[in-house]
Structures are given as C-alpha cells and as structure tokens.
Amino acid sequence: MGKLKGSTVILISMGFALIFGLAANIITTRYGFKQEYLVLEKFVIAPIGDVFMKLLLVAIVPIVFLAIAGGIMELGQDKAKLKRVSIKAGAYYFFSTLFAVIIGVGLAYLINPGLTGSSTEHIALKQHAQTVSMIDILVNMFPKNIFASLTEGNMLQIMVFAIFFGIAIVAMGGKESTRVKELVHYFTSVMIEMIKIIMKFAPVGVFCLLVKAVATQGYSTIIGLALYVLTILAGLVLHCILVYAPMLIFAVKMNPFTFIKNIGEVAAVAFATSSSKAALSISMEVTEKRFGVTREMVRFLIPLGASINMNGTAIMQGVGTIFISQIYNVDLSFPMLCTIVFTAIFTSAGAAGVPSGGTIMLTSILLMVGIPAEGIALIMGVDRALDMCRTVVNISGDIICAVAVAKSEGAVTKIHC
Length: 417
Ligand code: ASP
Description:
Elements: H1 6-29, H2 34-76, H3 79-111, H4 134-140, H5 146-152, H6 155-172, H7 174-199, H8 202-217, H9 220-224, H10 226-252, H11 256-262, H12 264-273, H13 276-289, H14 295-308, H15 311-327, H16 334-350, H17 357-368, H18 376-408
Helix pairs in contact: 1-2, 1-8, 1-12, 2-6, 2-7, 2-8, 2-13, 2-14, 3-10, 3-15, 3-16, 3-18, 8-12, 10-15, 10-18, 12-13, 12-18, 13-14, 13-18, 14-18, 15-16, 15-17, 15-18, 16-17
This protein binds aspartic acid.
C-alpha cells in the first residue's frame, strides 16, 4: 500500500468497472449476449472478485482480535484514559446512530416512498426472516465458546472476548503480561504485512466486484424503487451534513473536504465490497497514517466502530421499515415508532459488516412491530447499490469518531493530509 498512492489506481479501476458493467448490462439485456457474458462472469469476473473478498475477510478475524486486545493493552497503561475513551466513543456511537435512525424515519414520512403504489411485487424471502429482540442482541454479544465464535466469524462476540482478553492482560501485570503484549504486537505486525500484500490486488479485485454488481443489476429494478433509493441517499447525505461535517469542523477542526480527499482509498474499498469488515484494515491504516491518530487509539476505536457503529445502516433500517409498512398499509402508532427507532440502534449495531448484513437485521424490526417480514424482498433488488453507499457512510463515521476522540485525548500526532 506504500504511501496510499494506490487510491488513484483503485478509483480509475472503479471508473472502468462502471463503464464495463453498464456495457455488459446493456449487451446482455438488449443484444442477447447473456450466455457469453455469463461465461466471462462465471470463469473470470466472479472468481477473482470472490478471491479478493475472501482474502480481505480471512485477515479480519485475527486483526479485529489482535487490534482490540492490543489497543486495550496499550490504553490500559492508563486506566482512566481507557475508561474516558470508551465513554466518549460509546456516547458518539449511540447519539450518532439515534440521529441516523431519526433522519431515516423522518425523511421516509416526508417523502412517503411506499405510497406511490408502484411497488407491488411480493417475493417470498422467508429464509431471511429472524426474530431478534434487543435483549437477544445484547445477550448474544457474549460468547460461550470462543472457538465457535471464531469459526462463525461472529464479530461482536470476538470483540467482547478481545475486550476481556485485553483487560485481563492489563489486570495481570508483571513480566508475563509484557510477554503476551509482545506476542500480540508481533502477530499484529504480521497481519498488517499480510493486508499490505492483499491490497496490491485491490485494483483488480475492486474492478471485478463492481463489474459483477453493475452488470447483473442494471437499471430496471432501480427505477421501480427510485423513491426508496432517493430517500435513503438523501438520508445519507443529510447525515453527513448534519452530523459528520459539524463533528469534523468543531471537534476535529478539519475541513470536511480535506477529510473526503483523504479517505478515497478506503471509501473505494468499502464501496466496492459493501463491507465495513473488508475495509477495516485500510480504515486503520488511513486513520493512523493520514489523520495522525496514535496506533493504540486506532487499534481500539476503528475495529470497535466497524463492528457497532453503522450510521448508514441505521438510516436504511429507518427508511426501510417505514417504506415496507406503507406498502403493506400498516399504521404505525407513536410508541411503535419509538420502538422502531430504539430497536434500529441495536439492530444496526448488531449487523454484520458484510454485504446486506443490515438488511437481514431489518427483518427483526419488521417482525417486532408486526410488519410482514417478506416485505424485505421488495428492497433486496436495490440493496446492493445502496449498501455500497451506506458502507462508505458507516466507515466514515468510524474514522471521524476515532479522530475526534483521539483529538480530545491529545492522541493525534502529525496530520499528514
Ligand atoms: N454492508 C454494511 C457494512 O458492512 C452493512 C449493511 O448495512 O448491510 O457496513
């Protein structure tokens, strides 16, 4: 990754992917070259995209574990500081997510995307249905078998275990703890090197992932749900203007455009992979190298944010719930709206940072307030495109929070942007 010069190359590859994907969509749908394209997709585009995605994900479980445990160990040298940082980040996550859901629900009521009568197609998608209450989400955060959590890639459980692991090392103190700390550092360095190697393939990987998404989706589904899409996009933009920009200007003292300029590479990866998890390591690199946040802060705050701070997802869940309730003519009372807002805070936090992770969690909200869960099928067609955008918003929030908290702790060294 060197000095992050790869960002230009990735952006160029994204541009080509959009052109190529749209061209593929047009020739397959209008000129009957579907078979030819499908062969290309099956044997070249999909495998390369999948391998890139897998390479990113395989490194993530160890990185999250090592990063959080390592971050706590470092911060734990100053226990009061660890407590302060956790409280500040926790408050930021809670309020920014609350704001995000309110923006989503408010905009959905303003625009009424489900009252256009255009979306009538009902596809059964019951396999996605799952009832998860807030209590379930909280209880399920605690692992009972860490090896099961590791093999399942259950990030929340791995995170909780890493937090306890880090705290235990700090509590243990003495020579032993120093040795474990060194071990954690060595392993972390190995994983970071591995990510650097994987990122060399990013331009090709991002190209293939995007081509596949654009070629298979095309425009048709998007037109039918245009209003829903517009509502979410408006919500994402509004959130950036009302929450992110003031945070940058007042808490970080940074021009929002400087911020945007410097997250190009990580935004491109988040956009192409639709996965905060996949973008995690680059997020860490950018927060440290570009924004000058100290390594201990980065290691603690970025994985934590990538796992539980998903503002873009919260916006989608707010809009999605109202949209589906309008389609199914379900009247929502004020207490039900409050339940939706509160539940979305947890379901967005509990969503896995993978493509459509937040959409699957949306079913819990629907079931909780008695909206037919199969309504989720209505939005699945446009989900991928929206997921790309909200994932960028998700990871931006993590970086902003990390820089703001670090700044308030005097843990921002030289800013390189
Ligand atoms: N794809 C999103 C992420 O990884 C989660 C979601 O909203 O589906 O951040």
